[in-house]
Amino acid sequence: MTVRRRRPLYHSHTSPAFTKQRNPEMLVSPSTLNIAKWSRAEFVFEAESDPSHFTQSWVTATFSNGDDQKVVRGFYDDGGRFLLRFMPQSEGIWTFRTESNIASLSGITGSVNCTPAGAEATGPIETDETFHFRTASGKAWYPFGTTAYVWNYQSDAVQEQTLASLAASPFNKIRMCVFPKHYTYNFKEPQRFPFPGNITDGFDFSRFDCAFFHQLENQIDALKDRGIEADLIIFHPYDRWGFAEMDAETDRRYVEYLVARLSSFSNVWWSLANEFDLLRKKPMSFWDGVFKQITADDPYGHLISIHNWHNPPIHYTSNDHWYDQTDPLITHASIQHHDLWFVPGWREQFSKPIVIDECRYEGDVDCGWGNISGRKMLNLTWEGVCAGGYVTHGESYLSDDEIIWWSHGGRLKGESPERIAFLRNILEEGEAKRLSPWKGRSHSQWDVTIGHMGDDYWLLWFGDSQPGFKLLTMLPEGKEFAVEIIDAWAMTVERVTGTWRSGDRLPLPGRPGIALRMTAV
Amino acid sequence: MTVRRRRPLYHSHTSPAFTKQRNPEMLVSPSTLNIAKWSRAEFVFEAESDPSHFTQSWVTATFSNGDDQKVVRGFYDDGGRFLLRFMPQSEGIWTFRTESNIASLSGITGSVNCTPAGAEATGPIETDETFHFRTASGKAWYPFGTTAYVWNYQSDAVQEQTLASLAASPFNKIRMCVFPKHYTYNFKEPQRFPFPGNITDGFDFSRFDCAFFHQLENQIDALKDRGIEADLIIFHPYDRWGFAEMDAETDRRYVEYLVARLSSFSNVWWSLANEFDLLRKKPMSFWDGVFKQITADDPYGHLISIHNWHNPPIHYTSNDHWYDQTDPLITHASIQHHDLWFVPGWREQFSKPIVIDECRYEGDVDCGWGNISGRKMLNLTWEGVCAGGYVTHGESYLSDDEIIWWSHGGRLKGESPERIAFLRNILEEGEAKRLSPWKGRSHSQWDVTIGHMGDDYWLLWFGDSQPGFKLLTMLPEGKEFAVEIIDAWAMTVERVTGTWRSGDRLPLPGRPGIALRMTAV
C-alpha cells in the first residue's frame, strides 16, 4: 500500500500532557495543540491490551468552545490504545473532558487551539439553498462524482493508478464501499476485512481489524489530498462473507465504530447503503435506526443518504420500494434511475439536493447498468444538471485484466470524462450556479432541459433532440441576452452575434448534443 | 377533391323496393341486396326537406340474421334524404325493419343478402389475446400507425400526395381529426366544416354540413383502399372556431351523428380525443358519457380509445390526469408518453393492447414533441414492439411550404419510415407474433427490451446500449436456437453460425441499434 498520508495526525498521550482533572476550565495546558480549522486532532489514550474493549469499553469527550459543544466518541484501536479524534469547525480554544467506563480514561481533560483554515481548505461539504451544495468555507460546490466501489480493495499498483486517474479527472466525489464486493467481475478474495478472519475460518465479529481501518483511513486521506469526497457505502448486498447479514448488535457496533473512527475526516459522506432494497433481510425500520444512530453520533453532521436499487419497474405509479427521501435526517436524495426527466419532480417531492448516483455507466459489459455510450453518459449528466440536479459518472468497459473502473478503479478509458470536465468548468466559472428547472410549459420541454438562475442566467440542454431553431420564449421581457451555442461533445462555445430578447427566433445547428448559455447583458 | 370513391355504395329507395310492412319475416323481396361481408349497404329514405330533421327526427332499423340482431341508426343527409348504412358481419340474409318518429319512415322493411368476403377483405380490426390485434378475418394485425391530424383539410393536391405517400409507406393506421386544427403551422382557414358556417358569421350548430361529411367519407374510403385504418379523433383542443367548447347537447348530437354516419365504415376507429386533458372545460364525466354513448350506438364495436396529453410531469407517482384506461369500454390504451420503459407496466395495469400513439416525432421543429432524430424514432418503435406494445410514427421536419407530415400529410421526408417497414416485415413474416415482455430480472433490462412468444421466439432490442456480448440467460434450458443479429438502421439480418443455448455467451457488435432474433430449431 503506497498511498501516503500527507496530512499530519496530531498525537498526544494521556501523560504527561493530559491529566485527570475535574475542572476543565482550568486546563489550557502549555501543550495545547494548534490545529487548523477542519483538520483532525487525534488523541491516544492507553489502557490494558484486551480485545473485550471492542465490545465492553467506551470513551467519549465533550469539546467546548464558548457555547459551542461537541460530544465525540473515541474507539478502541487494539493493542491497548484508545483513539479519540476531533475536527474543530470553529476557531479558538476547544477544551475537552473525557468520560469512560474505564476509570483511568475518565475525566481526562485537554485543549485544542483551532487556528484559521489554510487558504485552500474547504472543510466538509454542506447542503446549500435547498437543492445545492457548498463547502464549509462558503464556496459553491458541484458534485461531479464517480463510482469505483472497491478501489480500496485492489492491489497497491491499481490503487495508485486510481488516485492518479482521479487527480487528472473532473471527479470530486467517489462512491466506495467499506465491505468487499461479491459480484460479477469481483470474485477475488481480499486480503483483509473490517473484521478479523477470513472466509474459510469465519470472522470474529466481536472485534475489528484495525489494520484494515488504518488502510481505509489512508485511502480517505489520499482522496482528500486530491480534492475528492469519499461517499462511503456502509452496507451493500454484494456479499459472500456474511457482512450483509450480521446480527443487529454487530450492525449497530459496526456503525458506531465507523462513525467514531471516521467522522473527524472532513471529506467523508455517509451512504447508508448501495441498493439498500437488495439487502432483503433488513427491514425499513433498520435503516430508520441507522439514520438516527449516525445523526446522533456524528458531531459534525456529515452529508448522509441512502441509495436505492429499484426503479419503478412495473407500475410506474408505485414508489414504495424507495426509502422516504423526505426524512429530515437525509441531507440529499441519492437516487438510482435511468430517466432524469423526473429530476424536477424529485426536487419538488423531496425538497433537498438530488444526486443521481447511478443512471447507468459508460461501457460495454453485458449488464443493463453498464453499456451506455459516452454520448449517453454525457447526455444524462447535462440533463441532470440543467434540471437542477447532479449526476454521478461510472464506467464499465470490458477489459482483459478485468480491472473495470466502476468497481476496481484503475484507468479511465471512456469518452465522457473530459466532456464532463468541460461541463464542470461551465458551472464553476464566474458566479456561483444555483440552477433550477424552468417551470414553463412542461410539454414543450420534451426536447430541452432548461435550467436557470432567476432571470439572468439560462442553461439549456437539447440532448438527442435536434431543433432547427428555438423561440426564446423562456426569457423574461425587457432584457438583452448574450447567447452562446455550446457543442457538448466537441467542447466548443460559440457566441452568437448580437444580443437576443424574449421571443426571438434563434437558429440552431439542427444536430444532437447542443446546449445554449444565455446571460443577461 | 380528387379522392375517388372506389367502393360502390348500394343505394335503394323507399319505393318501390321497400314498403311499409308489419311482418318483416315475410319480406325477402326480389330486390334483396347482395353485399359482401364487411362491405357497406346504404339505404336512402325520402322525406320532406327540412333542416329541423337534424335535431327533431330520428330513424333506426333493426337488422336480424337468425339470432344475430343489430340496431342501426340512420341520419339526415340534408335535402330531404335520410340515410341508413349497414355493415353485415355475418353471411346470410339480414332482414330489417325501421322505426322513426316520421310516420312514413317507420315500419319500412327490407333485406340484405350478405355474401362471403373477398379473399383480400380483412374486416374491422379487433383486439386479440388481451394485448394484440387481429383482423375480423382472423389474421394477426400489427398497428404501425402514423399521424397527419388534418390531412383531410388540405388542398386536393396535398391530399393526393398524402394518399400516395401512405400507400408507399409501412403505415396501416392514421390518426386524423374530424374538426380542423388551430395550432402552430396550422392557421389557414378551412373552406368547409362539420357545421355550416364560418368563423366570421359563426356556425349553425343545429345542422350539419353534409358536403363536409361526404368528403370525409370519401377520405376514409380512400384510406381503406390503401389498407389504412382511420383512427378518427372526435374532439381536440386546438380550436379557434368553438368546436372544443360546444354545449352538451351539441356535443351529444355531434357524436350521435358521427357514429350514425361512420360506424358502417369497416376501417374506422373511435378516438374520443387527442390530448383530452387539454379540453379543460370538459370534466371526466363528459368522457365517461361519450364512451357510453358510442358503445351503445355503434352496432359493430369498433376499436375505441382516448388519448392523453400529460405525462406525469412533476410527481411521477401521480397519474390522476390519465383517463382510467382500465375502463372495460376502452378497447386499447392510446397513450402519449416519451418513455417506453413503462410499456410492460401499462400492460399489467390496463390489461389491453398498449398503443403509444405519441412518443414524439422525427423532425426539427422548435417543439419538444417534434424534433427527435430518425434513429430515436426507430429506437422507440423497436422498444415499444419488443416490450409487447405498439408505437405510432410521426414526422415534423421544417419545410418552406409549411406542409408538415404530422399535421398536413404530403410527403414523408424522414429516415425512420423505411426502417419501420423493415421492422413491420419482421413481425409479419412467418407465424403470428404475440410478443410479451420478458419478466426476467428487470434490472438487467436497462440495456435491452426483451420480447418473446413462449419459449421459442425471442426478439431483443438493445437501442442505444452497446454491449460487447450477451449471456443468453433468458433462453429456456434444453433447446437450441438459431440466432440472427439485426442492424435496425442498416436493415441487415446476419445469421450467427451454429446454434445457441441458454447461458451461452454471444458476441455482439458493441455499437448501438442492434436487435437479436432467436428462434428455436
UniProtKB/TrEMBL annotation, chains A, B:
Domain DUF5605, residue spans: 446-519
Coiled coil: none
Alphabetized Pfam families for the sequence: Apiosidase (PF13204), DUF5060 (PF16586), DUF5605 (PF18310)
Gene3D superfamilies the record matches: 2.60.40.3950, Glycosidases, Immunoglobulins
InterPro entries: Apiosidase-like_cat_dom (IPR025277), DUF5060 (IPR032260), DUF5605 (IPR041239), GH (IPR017853), Ig-like_fold (IPR013783)
Residue ranges constituting the DUF5060 domain according to the UniProt record: 35-101
Domain Apiosidase-like catalytic positions: 132-390
Superkingdom classification of source: Bacteria
Name assigned to this protein: DUF5060 domain-containing protein
Organism, as annotated: Pantoea coffeiphila
